[in-house]
Design a protein that fits this description.
single chain, seven-stranded antiparallel β-sheet, 8 helices, 2 domains, alpha+beta, Bactericidal permeability-increasing protein, domain 2, Bactericidal permeability-increasing protein, domain 1
Amino acid sequence: MLICFLTLVALIPTSSSINPGVKVRLTEKGLEYGRVLGIAALQQKLKSIKIPDFSGKQKVSPIGKVEYSLTNIQIVNVGLPQSSVALVPGTGVGMSVANALISLHGNWGVKFLQVIKDSGTFDLNVNGLTISTSIGIKSDAMGRPEVSSGNCAASVGSARVKFHGGASWLYNLFSQFIDKALRNAMEQQICPLVSKAVSDLNPHLKTLNVVAKVDQYAEIEYSLVSSPNISKPAIELNLKGEFYNIGKHQEPPFAAAAFSLPQQNNKMLYIGISAFTANSAAYVYNKAGILSLYITDDMIPKGSPLRLSTRTFGVFVPEIAKRYPGLMMKLLVKAEKNPITTFEPNNMTVQATAGVTAYAIQPNGTLSPLFVLNVDTSVTTNMVVSGMKLAGSVSLNKMTVTLGTSYVGQFQVRSLDNILQLLMKMVVIPRVNVQLAKGYPLPALGKMSLQNTELQVLKDFMMIGTDVQFKG
């Protein structure tokens, strides 16, 4: 019951209250989609009602005691024309069904005056069935959501019986007790089925990617950091949204700043991803030591006039060609500190500071250092939603180069600007984009897919607005 709704909600606080890196808002449109799927699931559950054979005795004037039996009772149809899901601010979720219909078919038999027997079949239409329940949610031992139903109430309104077979004068006599007996039997079955339908959600909820692996170096944690904010129009969830090194959850030397999602309602779901999440990724990858790259001449397109050699660089720094004539070169580009991501309206920028160390490759393979440059770069980032991942690409915005250390005497660094920019565009940025194109997993449950997705870059965060579809 309410599989989509509760799957989207996952309302479990699993850690102390801190600012989230990721926020998720489920809107009224999302709740309505969940209600439709949930009622369909409940309808299937109610079709599984098993009413056991039962019999009894009833004193009927003027013939005395009548023994009766009802056997092989089957549900043939369930209709749930009216249903609603309501958010109780600060509390939880309530669900109700009204004016439901259940149709049954079975066999009846009677015996009276010790020897007289009669039997036949019957069809029973039960109208005015109402169901109401609340849904309680808690955390399991692994910090994933676990649901249960509470305060369930079910009542059956009127019942209309149509008998087939047997003596017609028995029908009215028999109907005096069949209505009450079957209504009681159904009422006793409904709430346990509702409870079972809710508990059947737990295997689905356990698919929540609380820790989502990104690659061999990093994973993202999507546990909740505070209780959900439940209000009349929406439910807002606060997720940690933090990258960690695989198997080592060490907090970065910075914390998430507070941010708020704008009040938009045309999508089922909104996901806000803060700069903290992006910056925690940079911290993790830098700590893993992979924000570095050796650039060699074979990485440069063959048709390029730029070659990574002392001859090329000697044009701009003559001392290089003089001391190391005719040698190939190698550059080590390495982040000197964590790249910083900032979000401004319609603009996501990453600022990075790297050291570029140039080496001449000696005939015996040893490396002779030539110089070290300090390079400050700014790249513009374009993010897209690809399946259940957030992917992206970057393009060079601007770059500033200063000399750090020279082993070939002083020289004008400006003369190398064009070479370094070409190397950034031809080698470094394409490799960064290959990694970004692989994407990073978004918070998800089960066979969830995103539809009609839109992405906005706002102040201090980006926001994904999307509809959601669940496949069985």
